[in-house]
Design brief:
Helices cover 24% and strands 12% of the residues. Strand 3 (60-63), helix 2 (77-86) and strand 4 (90-93) form a beta-alpha-beta unit. The protein is an alpha/beta fold. The protein is globular. It has a four-stranded parallel beta sheet, with no helix packed on it. Strands 1-2 form a two-stranded parallel sheet. It folds into two domains: 44-151, NAD(P)-binding Rossmann-like Domain (Rossmann fold); 153-187, no CATH class. Keywords: NAD, Oxidoreductase.
Length: 187
C-alpha cells in the first residue's frame, strides 16, 4: 500500500522469532502472524520509550492497546506535542477511549497544523462512552466518530463462532481455552 509500518509493544521483540504472533488463534489468511510487516520495532513501558517511538515519522497512529491503570491517558498533551511538532499525525483509536486524555486531544485537534496541531482523528471509542451530545469532538471537522463498531465486519459472527467451536473442542479435550480475559492483567 506504499506505507512503512512501525510497531510499538510493551516488551522488546529483537529477533524474527520474537516478532511472530504467538496467540493461539489467528484468523486464516489475515494479519501478519510472522511479524514481517513492521520495518522497525520499538518497545517499553516508560514515557521516554513511548516518546522515542512517537518522534518517528508517523503519519497515522493506530491505537490498539488494552486499557489498564498503566495505560490510562498514556496519550496526553506531551505525546500530542511530539506528534504535532514533527509529523502532523492523524490518530485512530479502535481500542478504549480512556487511553487518550480527551481534553488534551481536543486542544491539539483545534490547534492549527502549522502551530503543532494534529491533522485529525478517527475515534471508534471515547471517554465517556457514549460520547455526550455536548462534547466538542462532535463539532470538529477533522474528527470522525463511530459508535464502537470497528470490529464488526461482515465476518464477525463467523470469527466468533470459529472461536467458540475451537473452545468447545479444547474443553472436550481438556486443553486451555483461547481468547480469554485475564482479570489480573485487566484485559
Amino acid at each position: 500500500m506504499g506505507m512503512d509500518v512501525i510497531a510499538y509493544t510493551a516488551s522488546p521483540r529483537p529477533t524474527p522469532e520474537s516478532r511472530k504472533d504467538t496467540g493461539k488463534y489467528i484468523v486464516p489468511n489475515t494479519g501478519d502472524p510472522d511479524g514481517l510487516i513492521p520495518s522497525a520495532w520499538y518497545s517499553g513501558l516508560d514515557k521516554a520509550s513511548l516518546h522515542n517511538f512517537l518522534s518517528q515519522d508517523i503519519d497515522i497512529l493506530l491505537i490498539a492497546v488494552p486499557l489498564t491503570p498503566q495505560t490510562r491517558h498514556f496519550l496526553s498533551a506531551a505525546e500530542f506535542e511530539i506528534l504535532g511538532s514533527k509529523t502532523n499525525a492523524f490518530i485512530v483509536n479502535i481500542a478504549r477511549g480512556g487511553l487518550i486524555n480527551q481534553e488534551d486531544l481536543i486542544t491539539y485537534l483545534k490547534k492549527p497544523i502549522s502551530a503543532g496541531g494534529l491533522r485529525g482523528a478517527a475515534l471508534d471509542v471515547t471517554d465517556p462512552e457514549p460520547l455526550p451530545a455536548d462534547s466538542e469532538l462532535w463539532a470538529l471537522e477533522n474528527v470522525a466518530i463511530t459508535p464502537h463498531v470497528s470490529g464488526l465486519g461482515i465476518t464477525y459472527a463467523e470469527r466468533s463462532f470459529a472461536i467458540l467451536d475451537e473452545n468447545l473442542g479444547n474443553l472436550e479435550r481438556g486443553r486451555d481455552l483461547i481468547n480469554l480475559v485475564n482479570r489480573k492483567k485487566g484485559y
